[in-house]
Amino acid sequence: MKKEMPLTLELEPGTYHWCTCGNTKKEPFCDGSHKGTGKVPHMFKIILKRKYQICNCHLTRNPPFCDGICRHMKEERG
Ligand code: FES
Q1: DSSP string, 61-78
Q2: 32-67: per-residue pLDDT in tens?
Q3: Distance 49 CA to ligand 1 centre (A)
Q4: Which domain holds residue 44?
Q5: Distance 68 CA to ligand 1 centre (A)
Q6: I need a labelling partner for 59 at 20 to 30 A (CA). Which of 11, 24, 66, 67 fits?
Q7: 35 CA distance to ligand 1 centroid (A)?
């Protein structure tokens, strides 16, 4: 199944843990599957309820938010 990049999600105010290891079954959020990988989730807080573009390619330079690098990858792949 093709991954949706980025994920557009409406998030409620609160604290979230974005997966950095790529093993989660609950993308883009950590489900604890990182144990033993040496990686830890990236914690972030949401203040305003609205839609956010969350990185799902794990290459963003502004985690957990999409910085557009996936669009460059798509353009390069054609
Ligand atoms: S499951 Fe990937 S960081 Fe927790």
Answers
A1: SSTTB--SHHHHHHHHH-
A2: 999 999 999 999 999 999 999 999 888 999 999 999
A3: 24
A4: 17-48
A5: 22
A6: 11
A7: 8
Measured torsion, CA atoms of residues 68, 43, 20, 32, in degrees rounded to the nearest 10: -140
The minimum-distance atom of ligand 1 relative to the CA of 24 is 1
Out of 18, 26, 39, 55, give the residue to mutate to test ligand 1, the one with the largest number of ligand atoms within 8 Å of its CB. 39
Say how many domains are in the chain.
1
In a domain, 72, yes or no: no
**Is the sign of the CA dihedral 18, 21, 24, 28 positive or negative?**
positive
Task: Indicate the length of the chain as a whole number.
Answer: 78
Distance 16 CA to ligand 1 centre (A): 12
Is residue 21 domain-resident? yes
Identify the pLDDT of residue 1: 56
Position 54 in a domain:
no
Q: Whose CA is nearest to atom 4 of ligand 1?
A: 30
